[in-house]
Amino acid sequence: MRRKAIKVLLIVIAIIISGGAITLYILGKPAKVNTDKKLNGVSDELCSVLYYASLTANSHNTQSWKVKLDVREQRIRISIDAERTLEFVDPEYREIYISLGCYIEALAFAFDAYGYDTMVEYADFSDTHNEIAMVSYCRRENAEINSRQLETIKRRHTDKRSYNTDRINPEVIIQLLKDIDGIYCYETGTTEFEYLKNGTMEAITKQSAEAEYRKELNQWMRFSNTEVEQKKDGISAEMIGLNGIIKAFYYLTTNHKNAENDTFATQGIETAEKQTENCSAFFVITGEDTITDWIEAGRKTQAFWYRCVENNISIQPLSAMLEVIPYSEEIQNELGVTESVQMILRAGYINDYGENVGVRRNLKDYITVINGD
């Protein structure tokens, strides 16, 4: 009888363990975001261009752009979505304009891959919350699709994992910076690198103590595959470098209720410390403090990032020093650069480069079509 009871108990334990393993497996699986890439009255090719453009860099993956597509006139008007801004960390919309600059550059890059020429015209910024730019496009004769460029778009992503600390080949750095003004490279071991590393950690620590910062970040965090798949925006586990069983435990132990507490903030600080300790260099992108220059800084960032992808160099923007006083007021003088610092990019090599996880909204959610076919 005793043996039978022990046998039953072992079976129950095995079932529990098996059930737990299955749960962890399910939670650790990648989210399946089914982005609807169709627009009524728009060709499949043009829809593909617009989808690829959406895979651009942007703050918190807010995807803060609105698009008006005039098919007949072959024009795209781009505006800010005021409901997708970061009022606490970005009250002047500097980062939003940079994000939309990234989107404009990605759009031009995607059009080019499909054999189109583009022309960008900036709007009158007297009303800064409306249209920011118009992109005209025209197909080249006998143009062919550039699959290599499309692969670059798909591979580009923010990589928040630890990188190798191997130095980037000097010839590669020259290639990355060629013909792009206002970008500086500070490699590990330099005074500037240490300043940026320490300043980033101090700024993140100060920022993380702010209740409003935690609240705003929480709005864009995603704590389940279901939430990711439904909202199609924000920061998923994969986007912070978590996969498999680690991702499963993250989703089991973290939610919107506890994401604003001290424990979550401390974990974020510890993660940032690992990130800044494990990289090869910081790239700094500079520009003047006007709306046009912010957009240009975004375009410059995206173009530079594509070059990094082609050289298997991972990138992560680190914005805390640009969002927190006194660092935001001191950084230009401390680095000795001639223009304001607009972006700080952590860079380095990683064994498994990865690709964009494709957490993007349906095209029809932000694109209005005029004069469709």
Model description:
This protein is of the alpha+beta class and 373 residues long. The chain is 45% helix and 16% strand. The chain has 13 helices and nine strands. It has helices at residues 2-28, 44-54, 94-113, 147-155, 170-177, 191-208, 211-220, 225-231, 244-253, 262-277, 291-310, 320-323, 327-335, and strands at 65-70, 75-80, 116-122, 131-139, 183-187, 281-287, 313-317, 340-349, 367-370. A five-stranded mixed β-sheet has the order 3-4-2-1-9, with helices on one face. A hairpin with an 8-residue loop joins strand 3 (116-122) and strand 4 (131-139). The longest helix has 27 residues, at 2-28. It is globular. The N and C termini lie far apart (78 Å). Residues 8-12 have low confidence and may be disordered.
Provide a quick synopsis of the model.
The protein is of the alpha+beta class and 373 residues long. The protein has 13 helices and nine strands. It is 45% helix and 16% strand.
Query: Spans with pLDDT under 50 lasting ≥5 residues?
Result: 8-12
- Helix-strand makeup class: alpha+beta
- Number of helices in the DSSP assignment: 13
Using only C-alpha atoms, the radius of gyration works out to: 22 Å
Q: Helix-strand pattern, N to C?
A: HHEEHEEHHEHHHHHEHEHHEE
Mean pLDDT, to the nearest integer, reads 92
Distance between the termini: 78 Å
**The biggest beta sheet, please?**
5 strands, mixed
- Net shape: globular
